[in-house]
Amino acid sequence: MGRRKVEMKRIEDKSSRQVTFSKRRSGLIKKARQLSVLCDVEIALVIFSSGGKLYEFSSSESLARILERYHRHCELESEASKNVNEALRSYTELLHIVQSQLEEPTVEQLSVMEKQLDTALLETRARKTQLMMESIMTLQEKEKLLKAENELLETEIAAMDKNEDKNEVVIGFNDPKHLGHLSQLQTLSLLR
Amino acid sequence: MGRRKVEMKRIEDKSSRQVTFSKRRSGLIKKARQLSVLCDVEIALVIFSSGGKLYEFSSSESLARILERYHRHCELESEASKNVNEALRSYTELLHIVQSQLEEPTVEQLSVMEKQLDTALLETRARKTQLMMESIMTLQEKEKLLKAENELLETEIAAMDKNEDKNEVVIGFNDPKHLGHLSQLQTLSLLR
DNA sequence: CCTTCTATCTATAATAT
DNA sequence: TATATTATAGATAGAAG
């Protein structure tokens, strides 16, 4: 998108590399912002220049929050794939055993295999359920904490509002010269 | 860059929002890759679709490494701001000492005190607000993840139920007695 | 949901200031 | 080094399959 096509490899000339970095960096961040707005998605973008300077963009107020979410996501994924892999492994092992030992599987052997598979399945499901339950418990706990915190804050705010009048009276009473400053003090006490 | 200019706001039509997300997402990742190659810089890009699906790009082999670097960077920054805060604190202490030694505070001293109180109050409130916001965001986050996980589970279960019949036929062919167990067996083999 | 096709819009390389 | 200009490469919206 310039006067000529550009090869996709490191720009050797330091100066023009710097210029390109500056231009394309802002372009990239702009694009990221557009995507997050247009499609209502969360985006985190981190860029380290070769000089070690940090440039960042995040769709929400906190990049760290998105990165946390990323970590959580990865953990869940690896957890899930671990379960699947285990189930697959035992299934495969069982099949090998059965196939190597049998010309024709007997009813009993099939039955054993079924039981084992059944167990594996139940375990997998239990693990998933557990993960979900843990999430839910955490969620509920946080909700409680949040409510408590809210109440506390409201109480505090109410208390602050009540105390405004006293301060105004006390200072204004002793020295009328302070009136000019009182407005600041009052404003202060009004800041929620 | 299309048939017409697009307003920079959330695309309301779900279908076209999805299409745009798909197109622009790949465009953004492509741009990120180009920037990292052309200018030899480290880039980490994380995108969460509204459905909770993760898309990512990183210039180096490990996104986690870049994020670690990011965290280190932030820690250094917060270290610096900590120093500033400490300086502020000692300044405040000094003021307290001075004020406690004076019989009658001067207008100027009161004024300074007011400002400091103001700052302290604002900081405290901002901190509380921040804490609340963080809690809320986390809560919402978990809700999203939970929903996504639920959907996944439901999909899996639905798929499991669907596929039962096939296996029943195969195994049931040899021994009809096993029908009762087959449903579980098949469910297992469906585990990804 | 993916591709392909283009008309159009956007980003930017080269250049100048 | 930053900003502005301009020609061109590149991205993509909309439509169709």
Please give a structural write-up.
Two copies of one chain form a homodimer. Chain A has 192 residues and is mostly helical. The first copy, chain A, contains four helices and two strands, in the order αββααα. Among the domains of chain A are: 49 residues, Transcription factor, MADS-box (SRF-like, 3-Layer(aba) Sandwich), CATH 3.40.1810; 42 residues. Helices cover 76% and strands 6% of the residues of chain A. Chain A has a two-stranded antiparallel ribbon. The longest helix of chain A has 68 residues. The two termini of chain A are 51 Å apart. The C terminus of chain A is likely disordered.
Order of helices and strands of chain A: HEEHHH
**Biggest sheet of chain A: strands side by side, in what order?**
1-2
Q: Under the CATH scheme, which architecture of the domain at 12-60 in chain A would be assigned?
A: 3-Layer(aba) Sandwich
Query: Helical segment tally of chain A?
Result: 4
Q: Per DSSP, what share of the residues of chain A sits in E-state strands of 2 or more residues?
A: 5-15%
Shape of chain A: flat
CATH class of the domain at 12-60 in chain A: Alpha Beta
CATH T-level topology of the domain at 12-60 in chain A: SRF-like
Unreliable segments of 5+ consecutive residues of chain A: 167-192
Distance between the termini of chain A: 51 Å
The major pleated sheet of chain A works out as: 2 strands, antiparallel
Q: Largest inter-chain interface?
A: A-B, 84 and 82 residues
Say what oligomer this is.
Answer: homodimer
The CATH superfamily of the domain at 12-60 in chain A turns out to be Transcription factor, MADS-box
Radius of gyration of chain A: 32 Å
Pfam families (chains A, B): K-box (PF01486), SRF-TF (PF00319)
Domain MADS-box (chains A, B): 1-61
Domain K-box (chains A, B): 71-163
GO molecular function, one term (chains A, B): DNA-binding transcription factor activity
